[in-house]
Input
Amino acid sequence: MESLKNRRKIINRQELQLALEALWDDKDLTPQKRRQQWLGLYKEALKKGYAEVERRFIVDQDGAKAVMGNAFVMDQVIRILYDVTTKYLYPSSSPTMSETVCIVAVGGYGRGEMSPQSDVDLLFLHDYKISPRVEQIVEEMLYMLWDMGLKVGQSTRSIDECVKQAKADWTICTSMLESRYIWGEKKLYTKMARAFDKQVMNGNEKKFMAAKLDERDERHKKMGDTRYVLEPNIKEGKGGLRDLHALYWITKSLYKVKDISELVLQKKLTQKEVDRFKKAQQYLWTLRCHLHYLTKRSEDRLTFDVQPELALRMGYKNHAGASGVERFMKHYFLVAKEVGDLTRIFLSAFEASAQKRRVLGVPLNMFKKEVEGFKIDTGRLAVASGKVLEENPIDMLRIFRVFQQTDYDIHPRTIRSITRRLKVINKDLQNDPEANRIFLEILTAKENPEVTLRMMNECGVLGRFLPDFGRVVAQMQYDMYHVYTTDEHTIRAIGIMNMIEQGELVDDHPVASKIFDKVISKDALYVAVLLHDIAKGRGGDHSVLGAEVAKEVCPRLGLNEEQTQTVIWLVREHLLMSNTAFKRDLDDPKTIEDFASKVQSLERLRLLLCLTVVDIRAVGPNVWNNWKATLLRDLYNRTEDILSGGLETEGRDKRIEGAKAALAEKLNHWPEEYRKEYLNYGVDSYYLSYRTDELARQAEIVKEAEDHESPLTFRVSVDEENAVTIVTVFAGDHPGLFSRLAGAMAVSGATILNARIHTFTHGMALDNFWVQDLDGQAFSEPRKIVRLEETIRRVLSGELRPLEELGRRAKNALKDRRDIFTVPPRVLIDNKGSETFTIIEVNGRDRAGILFDLTSAITRLGLQIRKSKISTFGEEVVDVFYVKDVFGMKIEHKGKLDQIRETLLDVLEPDRKNDASKQLAS
Output
């Protein structure tokens, strides 16, 4: 507490104690009233003390002083509470040792750290056997602390109990290790500390270290085993405060120090390394204090809703290419990465101090030898000294290639040497052909490149060797779609590509796995994966900017002209396949023709499919699904047919005739006359839109409806393979039918992925919807299907009005996490992408019922919706509608196109016009 200035302004213990004693002397007060007034004084002291700490924190942004200040406030209150309790409530002129108690801080409070909303962890330490007086003191103090509104974690133990429980439980052992005397009988604490050191820690330092490292690994695994998740836990997550705590605990156990800085005197660490530890800790303390003050609770997750305000409070402003919140999160991830670097440095120091003993299960006297010029030290690759790396900078890369090829890990001491000498990776090494050859080998190796590249990234080698990659290290995007930072996403994508190449993902990605052996430019493919997001955060189209980066990097890596051009194209067009598959009608021949004309070759098609698959799969754990796989597979197969001169090049009329003939064969049990009549119901495009089995299923629905003269018939079919439910509706066609059905789906909690609307020649509509529930799964539970059917009937009968129902639910709903994001609304109208339809693409922030609102507006505009593709990317929705005017023609009049655009923009952003009016008025 020495660095706290003007401590009495935070809390004046003497003044508070005098006020409490004055109330004791007031004989007119009953014990109950006196206690109430005492409680009021304690609360007021806490409130003022914490307020002063917060006031200072807002001014100096010093988390270290804030956590220290909060602990100081608590110390003073507990000391006064103890003194008043033992002096006035349970006095004893000469208490025996069994009648005394010692108040000990444990946990974070024991370290002298208290974040604004942290618990107060206390140990009431007593002698061999607890006495009635000690029980009374403890009870009175606890009740008073609880009445103050404090969250108290407490235990009451004797010295022997402390030792026994610490031996049996590493968590209790850790708590005891960082204990701190607060007040009371100090002899008890001294005796306990000696017994703990002698009976628990002495001789068990290595076991304790192994237990803490195992505990850390398990914690990381629980939290996703990456520090680069976009809503990280700054305490328990990888690279968070708890990792620094683990280093502190191990250091205190091994070296018997009270502060990390003492390791400099012991020559275990350099002053620079200790300063890095303190700087990382200071940042995380400051961030946690801000988070607690903002949320007013013990919150450790940087959720999307708090990130913008935290960025503002910590002074991060918008810059070109990156918003303030993105810059804030990048800084956090760099600090989390720094904690990883510090962990390796500390582990190296720990191991160096354990000569000729077994550390972490590896015998230090293991037989030494060399591999590729690197010596083997304790079963790990090592360099003799840091000077070796300075004299041979290429070894900074070569050691990672040897690590990748062998079963040997890299020694922590060598990792430490590498991180200290990153400056040797200069332009000379970056342009060295041999260094680039080694790097390309690492990137494209059959041995898992993901592990090696991640280690290189953690050490700073990857970003130093490829400065463009260094710019995206810890780069985040403030949205709900991207789960990882750009560098972590890229490294994961490379790992997935390697798994596809090795045949490990055949079930998940059968087409990509099958065609990979046919890929000629494998080196180009891996480089394209590495560079596909390299220009994010620079402002502008990252695909176009990334292609410019590829133009510079590829020759340096040793790729020839042809490979370089392939990478440039892949980086520039890496979103082409997903945009086409998810946003365009794959049954429209022009969609496939346009896509094929951009791809041009089977080799590019294969490369693009593989890149698209790993790019989507690496976004996050729940982004890839069978529906997306089906769309990509269909696009690939249809394009392959065109590029290889297959079925798609056949005449359209011939294919329609073939589809009708196959359907007629399936319906050969129907009366011939009705069968012929039915085959004339659909327009030509209808028969090219489905496989024969699906056409037959729909035909049976139509026949049943007409046999029973039913005005409304619908069927629900579950497609387990693609995790979707197909809802087929057969009813009289009328304007707004699609919109009402979309409303029914929204009310039922169904998410529409795709929709196709067909009007038969006799005036009936056959509409098909592919839907999922809110968890991205098919509607397969009977009760959900029944509810879906019932809602559709009620909506179409007019009994239930979707607009009113969705509005009522919106009023009563909890705040949607999507509401915190801003997605610029955009309406794109394309008259070139289809021969017969105008394509309207709508981009905006997702919300419940948005598809119903959009389709209602399109209906009011007098347009016919014939097909739609629905995609959601986190908080952003991309809805595509294929429409015609009332005469069945494309919409080409500029005035009408402007009206469509303005109307749909108003749906996406209802307050747009009001905001514009306010701006004009002001």
